[in-house]
Write a structure and sequence with these properties.
The complex is a heterodimer of chains A (786) and B (205). With 786 residues, chain A is of the alpha+beta class. Chain A contains 20 helices and 28 strands. In chain A, helix 18 crosses helix 19. Classes of the chains: A alpha+beta (786), B alpha+beta (205). At the A-B interface, helix 1, strand 27, helix 18 and strand 28 of A face helix 1, helix 3, helix 4, helix 5 and helix 6 of B.
Chain lengths: 786, 205
């Protein structure tokens, strides 16, 4: 039995340890995912689509012959890039929005980088969906027909490495956007030098101590087990999309804009998603469009589902970060400079979000007291898998170098890195030392046994002759406080009180596993405390259907955990008013003289002569009443809480193998909304962080540019047997705006792990390794053994 | 962390060896007929209901058991994220043993008894333990839940064979199932809780 966290404010529902509201459905296999909803039994005339994938890293379709394929059994429609309805589609992106807001074509976040054709003529990476898609009666028939399409390719030169791609004469991926493969400056990301505060050169020159280092983050991928899946069907001129997009409203906007349909002619239905992890933000997937066009041509519903191989669809942005940090001899950091080169892969998508947008936010909230800060960044096109969104986008890459600089600087100054961090980092609204940062780091240090286990690099005892142990940590500011979510616009909730005093809750969000549906039910029970509800008296509407739901609050930034619950506080006041009005008519008492508490309505001061809410409603007209409310997130700038991960490793200096022995994950949550769900996120995030640190990497054949490990045997993410002991630590130190003052935590739980592990490896063996994943050969090379 | 100096080879091996794969049935089981000798009909009991299926009409010789269950019988509990035996989400019981239904042909199940997650009672100790896990410090035994049917069935098979597994045995037996949400610690807790309940009540699926 581990120790539960202690809530700052005792509440009946919020912050509790309990099963997820959908735990029984999930444990009994009843939960229906997109692939389950769209089986043929539910769509008897269903067709199956397949799309051509480029076998080359860079190639143009010279000729395309579909004559044989058209005659194959079961084939119902073939659509190619030469068809007018495809050719008419505008250039697009798979990164219209980071998911926070719904955007139209004109307002897409990275409008400068509309580099995708739908079913293009040119393939920009080996695996690109290009040229032709078709629909047949069965999946096998569709596969066979696709194999019968004859394609003659003009194979083009390709480039995989971003440094090579920046050199003159390199093969160009999107010359019309990036004449030298370097993505140009744009309005959203800003200039190449996008942060330039103070005078970095002057302060570095004047510093007593300067450290320099490099960190390279490779291309992990999300590995959602729920392969992208959609069915599109038309009813006259009206289209319905069933899919596992976690952005229903954005999917509707995307389809409406790209196919020139009025919004009300598009219906989008999303229910449970089997894991998101930022996978291919967003609702803007080009395959929705050609699937829709195949459905239109055939007049039948068409299903398209990725195979596992096709699900290697986008990755984290690989980024090479060079850092330089200067400090006074007392440990006061005076200058920080970071240069990064990011490998966008074949399409820009959210590359600039990772390289510029996320670091800008971190600068604002964590580097506010550093006099000089400079960031310079270049996103570079290559012929690799495109980099889009992945849990911890941009922050994970930045953390890898930030934690590196801190560790190096502390060593050179002869300081404990924990003291160095506390001395320097904080947001502009707060004082140093930042209370959240201090408590998070001290708690993590206590739990991992920092002072007992930390030793001089490489100088600890040996275990079993060849093994060395070490501890390390990394920290990061949270980035999901309410004020940071203002761009979402209004957040919708609908509360319907049924005549038996139970509640139907429309808190629209596509549940991806984060537990925010449970947060919402707990928030609803808490805010409607006067109804005396139990959790099981609330029915959460699990399907987002744009015909009937409010706008879905997208599970990006892990902020759904509190955003909708904050709106419910307001909605509950209106529910109370409406309830009292109804009860007043039944009880023949003026509204002003009535009160309601714990499920009973009664004249003020006389609870003994009242009646239950249920009785009152059953004696009224028995019409359920609904309060629908929306409001924008509070914009009051409250700063952010801090997060940290501590790791203890054992490195075998004979084999180069690294074992993570223990991890401690500390999150200041502001308010814990749902303790079991928050812990699940803290623990679960380490499957990604340990994987990224040690094993996860997409490997390409340098001769052909072909990816070699698009499967889960060769792309290795941790199993149960691979995971260390992880201790989740929930804290409530900082406080945001609103009733709860919470901050999303789930996304960031992946961010500090890789650097914590790298610093622990350094502590163990006294050698630094710059790039993850830390495979045994890199350790041996660092030790001079390979 | 697994002591695994060479990366993943060992884990990979583990992933496939703990499951009963094609034609490696237990000694006391009916021999699986070869596809060549297959009758025109196959008879498979799924969750207690016997299905007589005509080869050619209801299923093809190359159809996987996972496809047969999901697409022909509408039993969608088993999931097919990888379709190549790497993730365990399609795990079902074949005569009480865990098998990967994506790695087995439908016709190979002829004469056998298949149990999917739909065939377990809500009162099943494993189902209950997965649903109820919220012990502080371990999180919940599922988040998105897409891997859960596979984990539940693999855990059920483990406990059928070994009602009191150690933590190490649990990790070994379930390391062929992938959970990207990362609920491994809570799943291990759930399996231990189920084991305790089974020991107390003598329940067996």
């Amino acid at each position: 039995m581990r120790t539960p966290y202690k809530p700052r404010v005792a509440r009946k529902f919020i912050g509790s340890y309990r099963p997820k509201i959908d735990a029984w459905d999930k444990a009994t296999g009843k939960t229906q995912f997109a692939d389950d909803i769209t089986i043929k039994q539910h769509f008897p005339d269903l067709l199956y689509a397949k799309v051509l994938r480029s076998p080359h890293a860079h190639a143009r379709i010279k000729t395309l012959d579909t004559v044989k394929a058209e005659k194959m059994p079961g084939v119902r429609a073939i659509i190619t890039y030469r068809d007018p309805e495809i050719a008419a589609l505008p250039m697009t992106s798979a990164g219209w929005t980071d998911g926070v807001d719904t955007v139209s074509y004109d307002r897409m976040m990275w409008h400068r980088f509309r580099d995708r054709h739908v079913l293009p003529e040119v393939a920009c990476w080996a695996g690109d969906e290009v040229g032709v898609a078709l629909a047949a009666d069965t999946e096998v028939q569709a596969e066979e027909a696709l194999a019968a399409v004859r394609v003659e390719w003009e194979v083009l030169p390709f480039v995989l490495d971003p440094i090579e791609a920046m050199k003159p004469g390199a093969p160009l991926v999107h010359p019309e956007i990036a004449p030298n493969n370097i993505m140009p400056e744009d309005r959203v990301g800003g200039a190449n030098v996008f942060v330039n505060k103070g005078n970095v050169e002057r302060d570095l020159a004047a510093a007593d101590v300067v450290v320099e280092g490099r960190s390279i983050h490779h291309n992990a991928t999300q590995c959602s087990l729920d392969n992208w899946c959609c069915v599109v069907a038309w009813d006259d001129e009206r289209l319905t999309l069933w899919s596992n997009s976690y952005e229903a409203d954005q999917s509707r906007m995307h389809i409406s804009q790209m196919l020139s349909l009025p919004v009300h002619k598009v219906r989008v239905v999303s229910s449970f998603v089997g894991g998101q992890f930022g996978r291919g933000d967003t609702g803007d997937q080009p395959f929705f469009l050609w699937t829709a066009l195949l459905a239109k041509r055939t007049g039948r519903p068409v299903k398209f589902r990725h195979s596992r191989r096709e699900s290697f669809h986008d990755s984290r942005q690989p980024a090479i970060y060079d850092g330089k940090v200067g400090a006074k001899s007392d440990g006061t950091i005076t200058a920080m400079s970071f240069n990064s080169v990011g490998n966008a892969g074949a399409y820009a998508d959210h590359t600039m979000f990772a390289l510029k947008f996320a670091p800008m936010e971190v600068t604002e909230v964590a580097f506010a007291h550093i006099p000089s800060v400079r960031f310079e960044s270049y996103g570079v096109y290559t012929n690799k898998l495109p980099a889009c969104m992945m849990r911890g986008v941009g922050n994970s890459q930045l953390n890898l170098v930030l934690g590196h600089m801190v560790d190096m600087l502390a060593e050179k100054l002869g300081m404990d890195p924990i003291d160095l961090v506390i001395k320097n980092f904080g947001h502009e609204w707060g004082k140093r030392p930042d209370e959240s940062l201090t408590k998070v780091l001290h708690e993590g240090a206590r739990r991992i046994g920092w002072s007992e286990k930390r030793h001089r690099p490489g100088l600890g005892p040996s275990y079993a002759d060849t093994k060395k142990r070490g501890v390390g940590f990394s920290f990061h500011p949270g980035w999901h406080a309410e004020w940071q979510e203002v761009r979402r616009g209004e957040v919708h909730v609908g509360i319907t009180v049924n005549p038996d005093a139970t509640v139907t809750l429309d808190a629209p969000t596509v549940e991806t596993g984060t537990g925010s549906n449970t947060c919402n039910v707990l928030g609803c029970a808490e805010s409607l405390g006067f109804l005396g509800l139990r959790v099981e008296d609330i029915h959460w509407v699990s399907t987002v259907d744009t015909d009937t739901s409010g706008k879905d609050c997208v599970q990006t930034d892990s902020a759904v955990a509190f955003l909708q619950s904050e709106v419910m506080i307001d909605a509950a006041k209106e529910v109370r008013n409406q309830l009292l009005t109804r009860a007043a008519a039944v009880m023949k008492v003026p509204v002003a003289e009535l009160d309601v508490a714990e499920g009973r309505v009664f004249p003020k001061g006389a609870p003994e002569i009242g009646m239950t809410v249920k009785d009152a409603l059953l004696r009224s007209d028995r019409v359920p009443f609904t309060v629908k409310l929306s409001r924008a997130p509070l914009s009051q700038r409250t700063g952010v809480p801090y997060i940290a991960t501590f790791a203890e490793v054992e490195v075998d200096t004979a084999t180069g193998a690294t074992d993570v022995l223990n991890m401690v994950v500390v999150n200041d949550c502001g308010t814990v909304m749902y303790a079991s769900g928050a812990e699940a996120q803290q623990l679960g995030g380490q499957v990604i962080s340990v994987g990224e640190a040690l094993t996860e990497e997409i490997i390409y054949d340098p001769a052909t540019g072909y990816p070699l490990n698009f499967n889960w045997i060769d792309y290795q993410f941790p199993t149960m047997a691979d995971m260390p002991e992880v201790e989740p630590v929930l804290m409530e130190v900082w406080r945001g705006g609103g009733e709860y003052g919470a901050c999303g935590i789930g996304e960031g739980t992946v961010t500090c792990g890789p650097r914590a592990i790298l610093n622990a490896i350094y502590n163990a063996i006294g050698m630094r390794i710059d790039d993850i994943p830390i495979k045994p050969e890199k350790v041996l090379r660092a030790l001079g053994k390979a | 962390m697994a002591k695994n100096p060479t990366g993943r080879k060992r884990t990979v091996k583990k992933r496939i060896t703990h499951k009963v794969r094609r034609k490696t049935t237990a000694p006391n089981e009916v021999t699986v007929p070869s596809p060549v000798a297959a009758a025109t009909t196959v008879s498979i009991t799924v969750n207690g209901l016997r299905h007589t299926l005509e080869v050619g009409r209801d299923l093809t010789p190359s159809m996987t058991l996972a496809f047969l269950l999901r697409e022909r019988l509408g039993i969608t509990g088993p999931k097919v994220p990888c379709d190549e035996g790497a993730c365990g989400a399609c795990t079902v019981l074949l005569d009480g043993k865990a098998v990967l239904s994506c790695m087995m042909l439908g016709i190979e199940a002829d004469g056998h008894e298949v149990v999917t997650i739909e065939g377990l009672a809500k009162t099943d100790a494993v189902v209950e333990a997965f649903a109820c896990q919220c012990e502080p410090g371990y999180g919940t035994a599922m988040q998105c839940g897409i891997c859960t049917p596979g984990f539940v069935m693999a855990a059920r098979a483990l406990l059928n064979d070994n009602p009191r597994p150690s933590l190490g045995e649990i990790k070994e037996a379930l390391s062929g199932n992938l959970c990207r949400c990362g609920c491994y610690a809570a799943i291990a807790q759930a399996v231990q809780h189920a084991s305790e309940k089974i020991a107390a009540t003598g329940e067996r699926a």
